[in-house]
Design a protein that fits this description.
With about 350 residues, the chain is an alpha/beta fold. The chain contains 13 helices and eleven strands.
Length: about 350
């Protein structure tokens, strides 16, 4: 067997930046889930919230402005705080080739600061991807208006943006689903998307891709669809591909996409015809002339399971918005969203609505 001494620094460096309470919590859950090959950074105005962060790098922004007490649900404060700390932010992301900026939209810090963080990264020539959540409708009109405004600001600052409406959790979750499990579902979109790209860049595969391929699909492309699917047993490739295409947690569809990044990960039994099946289903759903870039990776830990990540970009008028659908049935053992809790997450770490967490630190 050939052995190589591989220096990880030769690969593209990926950093995930969680901004505000929602972003910090998403980062914590990804760290707990063992996401590999990336560096985590937590950014917040709230000193106490940063104390709970598991990220190696923590940046308290706007100390002069907020005194470490948070943005008080005011996006303007979050924006000013980020501008006050531009030097610290740029220093933390220096050396990155790709940055994921994640935040829960609708609050103060995430909504106001995330676009500034993304702007700094983009100005440094870093491929910048935003992955954010929209608040539940029951959190009120004002919070939703803040979120929509923040998303527009972020869209202008990133190369690619993926938005996950929290209301979609109500469609895919069972009535007995806990808050921990529900938010894990939303995190899984970000986690598997980041992991898929990280694996493409750093893990030798059956079909090898590199960072240049990723940039081809994701640079300056606007709103995107980032779908994930997993399945096992007979027909697993088709099931996983369909789940990645449908992605019930997203409002978007891959119909008409002109750029597609498809990553297929399976055990040592991953078959050639399974790759062909998955790629064929994706190909039928996108623009006939779409640039489809495929990567295939073997992960011995997956056994009978297959994971598929689809990132679709290059929509002429933005990705097609799906109408709300019925709750997605749980397909035990045949794909769908796995509702088995796998992350040890305490109640303190939840990105819960403001009215539920109001007395959290009292």
């Amino acid at each position: 067997m050939l052995e190589f001494d591989i220096d990880m620094e030769q690969f593209a460096q990926i950093k995930v930046i969680g901004v505000g309470g929602g972003g910090n919590n998403a980062v914590n859950r990804m760290i707990s889930a063992g996401l590999r090959g990336v560096e985590f950074i937590a950014v917040n105005t709230d000193k106490q919230a940063l104390f709970l962060s598991k990220a190696n790098t923590k940046i308290q922004i706007g100390d002069k402005l907020t005194k470490g007490l948070g943005a008080g649900m005011n996006p303007e404060i979050g924006e000013k705080a980020a501008n006050e700390s531009r030097d610290e932010i740029s220093q933390a992301i220096k050396g990155a080739d790709m940055v994921f900026v994640t935040a829960g939209m609708g609050g103060g810090t995430g909504t106001g600061a995330a676009p500034i963080v993304a702007q700094i990264a983009k100005e440094m020539g870093i491929l910048t991807v935003g992955v954010v959540t929209k608040p539940f409708m029951f959190e009120g009109r004002k919070r939703m208006q803040y979120a929509e405004r923040g998303i527009e600001n972020l869209k202008a600052a990133v190369d690619t943006l993926v938005a996950i409406p929290n209301d979609r959790l109500l469609q895919v979750a069972e009535k007995k689903t806990s808050i921990v499990e529900a938010f894990r579902m939303a995190d899984e979109v970000l986690k598997q998307g980041v992991q898929g790209i990280s694996d493409i860049i750093a893990v030798p595969g059956l079909i090898n891709l590199d960072f240049a391929d990723v940039k081809t699909v994701m640079q300056n492309t606007g709103l995107a669809h980032m779908g994930i699917g997993r399945a096992s047993g007979d027909g697993r490739a088709e099931e996983a591909a369909k789940m990645a295409i449908q992605s019930p947690l997203l409002e978007t569809s891959i119909d008409g996409a002109k750029g597609v990044l498809l990553n297929i990960t399976g055990g040592s039994d991953l078959g050639l015809f399974e790759i062909d099946t998955a790629a064929g289903l994706i190909q039928k759903s996108v623009d006939p002339d779409a640039n489809i870039i495929i990567g295939a990776i073997i992960d011995e830990n997956l056994n009978d399971e297959i994971h598929i990540t689809v990132i679709a970009t290059g929509f002429d008028k933005g990705p097609i918005i799906k109408k709300p659908s019925e709750k997605v049935p749980d397909k035990s053992g045949r794909g769908g969203i796995d509702k088995t809790p796998v992350i040890d997450t305490s109640s303190d770490e939840l990105d819960i609505p403001t009215f539920l967490r109001r007395n959290r630190f009292k």
